[in-house]
Amino acid sequence: MQKKTDKNISSGAEKVERIEQEGAQQTAAEQEHAAARARVEKSRARAAKREQEYLDRAHRQEEKLHKREENAAQKQLQRQERAAAAAEKKAHAAEARAAKRARRELMKSESAEEAKNRRQREKKERLAARAKRNEEAEKKRAKAQKERESKRRARASRRESKRKESPNGGWLAAVISLGVACLALATVVTAGAFRISDMTMRTAGDYRATLYEMVSVSEDMDNNLAKLNVSSGTEEQRLLLTQLLVDSAVMESAIEKMPFDGVVGSELSAFVNRTGDYSRDMLTALAAGKTLGSAEKEMLRSLAERNSTLYRKLNELATHLNEKDFLAFLNGQEGALSQQFRDMGEGTLASPEDTSEAPFTGEGNVGENMLTGLEEISMQRAEETVREALSGYRIADAVCTGETHTRDAVLYNFTLMTEEGGEIFAQITKQGGKLAFFDTYEPCSQHNFDLETCDSLAREFLAELGYDGLEAVWLSEADSVADITYVGVQDGVRVYPDMIRVRVCEERGRVTGISAMEYLLNHTERTIGQADGMEEARGLLGEGLTPYSAHVALIPMNGEERLAYEFACTCGEEEYLVYLDAETGDELQIYRVRNSAQGSYLR
C-alpha cells in the first residue's frame, strides 16, 4: 500500500513537471516568434528607408540635371545677348566711321566760308545739346531735392512726435547707405550708426557725455586710419573705410551738439566731412575694381596725422576736465577751454594738396596683363634682382618679408638695409622678376638740383632698369622732392597706360622711389590707329578754352585704351587738360590744373 501511494505521488510530480516544461517551451516559442516578427519589421523598415533614400537621391539627381540644363540655357541666352550687343556696337562703330569719312570728304570740298559756317552751326548744335542735358540734369536735381526735403520734413515730424512722447530724449537709430554702380556691376556698401538725438541738451552733464562720445569716436577713427595705412587686402580696406564713413557721420552729429563758436565748429566739421567724403570716394573706387594707389595712401596718412592730433587733444581735455573752465565754455566765455577747442580746429585745417598726380594715375591694368605668362622666379632669384637693381645704394642686407597678392600680380616684399644705416622697401614681381616699386626716406631740405636736372637723373636710373622710350608728362615738387611722371611713347603718341612715377631728392640728386606697376602690366608694342583730325578737334573744344599745347594720346578709359587728342588749355586764369575722342570728337575727360607752393597738380 505504501508502495502504490509512493508511485502515485511520483507520477503526479512528473506530470506537473512535464506540464511546466511544456509551458516553458511554449513561452520560449512565443518569444522566438515575437523576436522573429520584430526582425522582420526592422528588415522591412530598413528596406523602406533604403527605397526612400534611393528615391530621394534620384529626385536630387533629377533636380540637379534640370538645374544644369536651365543654367546652360541661361548661359547660352547670355552669350547670344552679348554677341548681339557686340554686333550692334560694331555696327554703330562702322556707321560712325563711315559718317566720319563722309564728313571728311565733304570738308575737303568746302570753301573757307562754308567751313566757318559749318563750325558755327555745329557749335550751336553742341551748345543746344549741352543746354538740353543741363536742363534735364537740373530737373533731376530739383526732383531729388524735393524728395530729400520731403524726407527731412518726415524725419523732423517723427522726431517731434517722439520728443512729445518721451521728453527725456534718447537715441535715434540711423543707417547710412552708399550705392556704387560701375560698368555692369553694382556694389552697395551699407553702413549704420546711432546718432545723438537732435533734442537740445540742457545740462553740463549732457555736454560732458557728448565730449566723451567725441573722444571714443575719434579713437575709433584713429585705429581705422592706422590700419588702412598698412592694409593691402581689398575686403579689409572696404570694411575699414565703411567703419570710417560711419564714424565720420557720428562725429559730425556730436560736433553739432556742442556749443562751439562758428569758426571752430566749421573747422572741425570740415575735417570730419572731408574724411567721410574721401572714405566714400575710396569705397567707390574699390567697388569699381580699382585699388588704393599712392595718392590715396598719402591722403590716408595725412588724415591719420590730423585725426591723431585731434584724438590726443580731446583725450587730454576729457581726462583733465576743469569744471570751472567747462562751465565758462558752456556760457560762451573766453577761457582756457575755448582756446583748446580753437587749437583743435586749427589743427584739422587742410594744407594745400600734398600730392601731385598726372592724368590717369592709378588706372592699373588695361586690357591684357603683360606679366601673365612670364616665368615665375624664386625668392632667392628675386633677392638677387633687387640687389642688382639697387646696387648703387650700397645694400648691406636684404630680407624678404613675404608676398603681396594684388588683383593683377604677386609681389615679393623686401626690406633692405644700406651700409649707411638707411632702410629701403622694395617689391619684385613674382612673374618676370621686375622691380615694380621701391621707396626710401632721405631728408631733403635744400634745392641743389632743379627739376630739369632731376628729370635727367631719373631717366638715367630708369634706363639702367631697362625702361626706355619714355616722356615726362607731369613734373612737380614738394619739400625739395621732385615728383616726375613718365609715360611710354610710340609713333609720337603718348601712351598713358605705360606709366612710371619717380621721386628724386633735390638735395642729394638721387632717386628715392619709383612706382612702375602700371608700366609692367600694360607695356607692349601696339597697333595705333590714325589720328589726323587735330585741327578739327581743336574746334570742338568748349567755349572759353584756349589751347596752348596739343598731343595725341592713348588713354585708359573703363578698362580699355582709347585714342584721344590731349589739349592743355587756359580759361581766364584757370588751366585745364581736355581729352577728346580721336574718332568721334566726344569729350572723354577733363582735369583741372591747380598751382600751389608745392608745384602743379591735378584735381
Key descriptive features of the protein:
two-stranded antiparallel sheet, Nuclear Transport Factor 2, Chain: A, extended, 13-stranded mixed sheet, 12 helices
Describe this entry's structure for a reader:
- Helix content is 53%, strand content 23%.
- It is built from twelve helices and 15 strands.
- Strands 3, 4, 5, 6, 7, 8, 9, 10, 11, 12, 13, 14 and 15 form a 13-stranded mixed beta sheet that branches.
- Helix 6 (294-319) runs antiparallel to helix 8.
- The relative contact order is 0.06.
- Mean pLDDT is 76; it is low at 166-202 and 350-356.
Beginning-to-end CA distance, first to last residue:
138 Å
Number of helices: 12
Mean pLDDT: 76
List low-pLDDT spans. 166-202, 350-356
- Which structural class do you get from the secondary structure elements? alpha+beta
Cα-atom Rg, whole angstroms?
38 Å
* Largest pleated sheet: 13 strands, mixed
Order of helices and strands: HHEEHHHHHHHEEEEHEEEEHHEEEEE
Instruction: Please give the number of β-strands.
Output: 15
In short:
This protein has helices at residues 2-108, 112-165, 204-230, 234-257, 262-287, 294-319, 323-330, 336-347, 379-389, 451-464, 517-522, 534-538; strands at residues 171-182, 185-196, 395-405, 410-418, 423-429, 435-440, 470-478, 481-490, 493-505, 510-515, 546-557, 560-571, 574-581, 587-596, 599-602. It has 603 residues and is of the alpha+beta class. The radius of gyration is 38 Å and the shape is extended.
